[in-house]
Amino acid sequence: MFLAVVVPESQLQSIDRDVIHAAMHESMIRCRDMQSHLDIKSRVKRSQSPLSSRVGDDLVLFSVNRGMYYGVPVVGRRIWDLMENQITICAICDQLVQEFSVDRDTCEKEVLNFIGQLEAEELVMRL
To answer: Which CATH number, 3.90.930, 3.30.50, 3.40.1170, 3.90.1690, labels domain 6-126?
Structure first.
């Protein structure tokens, strides 16, 4: 899973486990509903509204629409970079199997899951 913690901006100062678990549970429910429509031929592009900042090798996204922060590790950051312009999930996987030590089946499964999460959080759009 590439999308790490989902934290409401209003509760950033007083983060506790219940808040994190509730936010992640809500995100996973939205993801489950949307992921079934994604496939390897789906064309995606990142939304224009999230703000992003690199922190070391990772990426932090802030959704202005939802008031939420998202932590994205290095592979997820690379996927985010690839989605700057319209791209198919297949093309993303082509690139990732060249750059990282991952087999094609695992890559496709994980990328579909990650992009499903991003779509559920309105951070990417399907074209």
So the answer is: 3.90.930
